Amino acid sequence: MTSRRKFLKHTAALISIPTIVPASALGRSGFVAPSDRINVAFIGAGNQAENDIKGFWNDNRVQITAVCDVNKKSKGYWDGKVGGRRYITSLVNKHYKSVYGGSLGKSCAEFEDFREIISSPAFDAVEIVTPDHWHAIPTIMAAKAGKHIYCQKPLALTIQEGKDMVKAVEATGVTFQCGSQQRSNHRFRHVCELVRNGRIGDLKRVVCGLPGGTPDFGKTGDLTETRPVPKGFDYEMWLGPAPAAPYAPARTHVNFRWNLDYSGGMVTDWGGHHPDIAQWGMDRDDSGPVKVRNPRAKWADHPIWNTATEFYFECVYDDGVELVISHDAKHGVTFEGSEGSLWANRGDMSSDPADLINSEIGANEMHLYKSDDHFKNFIDCILSGEEPVAPVSAAHRSITLAHLGNIAMQLEEDLDWDPVREVVIDNEKANSMLQRSMRSPWDKVYQEITT
After folding, report:
1. What are phi and psi of 410, to 5 degrees?
2. CA 373 from centre of chain
3. Facing residues of 42 across strands?
4. 121 alpha carbon, distance to own chain's centre
5. Strands of 252-357, DSSP E
6. Domain boundaries of the chain, sorted by first residue
7. Taking the alpha carbons of 111, 112, 118, 120 in that order, is the dihedral positive or negative?
8. Which of 137, 57, 70, 68 lies closest to 105 in space, CA to CA?
9. Residue (of 259, 278, 32, 34) closest to 132 by Cα position
10. Dist CA 366 CA 443 (whole Å)
């Protein structure tokens, strides 16, 4: 853990504002003064962080003032790229220097322990862009500290953690946006509006096609053997609440997603996207299925990776609508109704009949929440106090589908689900899988922040 002296030094540097700054930084020429900006700190500096900082630094109401990660700097991220707190911090400072010049070009600081960011009054909001097993604890702690939260999908490692995150966010009233950014895509919104306004008649079936496999985005090759922890990487902190395990490159950074101790494979990776849109179009943001049936999966045959590489399961709702989640279906979300069908993906959309996709939503019809920029929507809602397009409750309900699917496939059993009490009916083993035990001392930390 970073020393108190280092923490105070970082905090002092962040709170102070340069005496002489360019006119742009003083709020002239359409810019917002630093004292009026929302200070955002990144907790996590890996795969998604480089994309997300660009989403925030283009908003002149925002100042990215800190980056935190247990890894200082290394390769091993998407496509073998570099990541870590030193790398991401340098990108932020380089950007601000090019835009504002002067001292603002050095205003982003590095942290190794997220608790120092949460305890500091210098930050208004955090983005949590860590591996999945590190979503719940920082989110709950940040909410209790009154900080607004942008948390990457999938929301949580388990259903119970998701429930606890919802409780904390709603109890404190902070603004929360989940990184299920497809809700800010006009194609998905348009298709969901058409479904909600009855353009395909009675909804019968929804099919979500997700990618399969265990892609080695890091191009690591066979790096599964135990080896010394690299210098500048706090592997013990990276593991955190997860079970103790020897260090191997195939376990960390870009490849964490293929181990059930840290994530849920493609089922949860994309489960925060297409099934989220399915529930949005079905008007099920506050509920879920009553049954998960016909689960089948092929599991990774690998020394470290153990998530499903092929998968299929059906979620059945109380009105009889069936939602299929499969690696072997057309990628995207397909809504099938009594009078036609609609399909959407990130770059395209279509319908049957073909001209249905061009139908316009009338002024007096139902219109869904409109957001065309997920990051901007988060900042807008911090300032307005309104709820973002991807609130914590909806994120929890949509990723619950993926968690239930993984549980059903592991047990090779159909599940009867109570979406009100959020328990599996008459299945003790399945209910025991709604939460994971945490390693000391994080088990005690979690108990303290959730009671």
Report:
1. -65, -40
2. 16
3. 67, 127
4. 24
5. 291-299, 308-316, 322-326, 332-337, 340-345, 348-352
6. 4-182, 185-367+392-450
7. negative
8. 57
9. 259
10. 45
According to the model, what pLDDT value does residue 35 have? 65
Report the DSSP pairing between strands 176-178 and 203-209.
Answer: unpaired
Instruction: Evaluate whether 281 touches 333 at the Cβ level (below 8 Å).
Output: yes
If one counts every other C-beta atom within 10 angstroms of the C-beta of residue 217, the result is: 17
Tokens 């001292």 found at: 103
The answer to whether 96 and 116 have CB atoms below 8 angstroms apart is: no
Residue for token pair 């490159």: 249
CB 170 within 8 A of CB 392: yes
CB 267 within 8 A of CB 210: yes
- pLDDT averaged over 10-residue windows placed end to end, the chain, 451 residues: 40 37 38 77 95 95 97 90 96 92 77 98 97 98 98 98 98 98 98 98 98 76 87 98 96 94 98 98 98 98 94 98 98 98 97 98 97 98 98 98 98 98 98 97 98 93
What CA–CA distance (Å, rounded) separates 42 from 108?
A: 10
CATH superfamily of 4-182: NAD(P)-binding Rossmann-like Domain (3.40.50.720)
Q: 411-420 — which CB contacts under 8 Å span 24+ positions?
A: 411/295, 412/295, 412/296, 413/295, 414/291, 414/292, 414/293, 414/294, 414/295, 415/291, 415/292, 415/293, 416/290, 416/291, 417/288, 417/289, 417/290, 417/291, 417/292, 418/290, 419/287, 419/288, 419/289, 419/290
Residue 412 one-letter amino acid: E
Task: Reply yes or no on domain 185-367+392-450 having CATH 3.30.360.10.
Answer: yes
Cα distance between residue 67 and residue 326, in whole Å = 36
CA separation for the pair 444, 451 (Å, rounded): 11
Helix residue ranges per DSSP H, 249-361: 265-269, 274-282
Q: Which residues, at least 6 apart from 165, have a Cβ–Cβ distance to it below 8 Å?
A: 135, 136, 139, 140, 143, 151, 155, 156, 392, 396
> How far are the Cα atoms of 257, 266, 334 from residue 269, in angstroms, in the given order?
8, 5, 19
For 373-432, the DSSP string reads -HHHHHHHHHHH----SS-HHHHHHHHHHHHHHHHHHHHT--EEEETTTTEETT-HHHHH
At 49 the three-state DSSP class reads: helix
DSSP structure class, residue 74: B
3 state SS of 115: helix
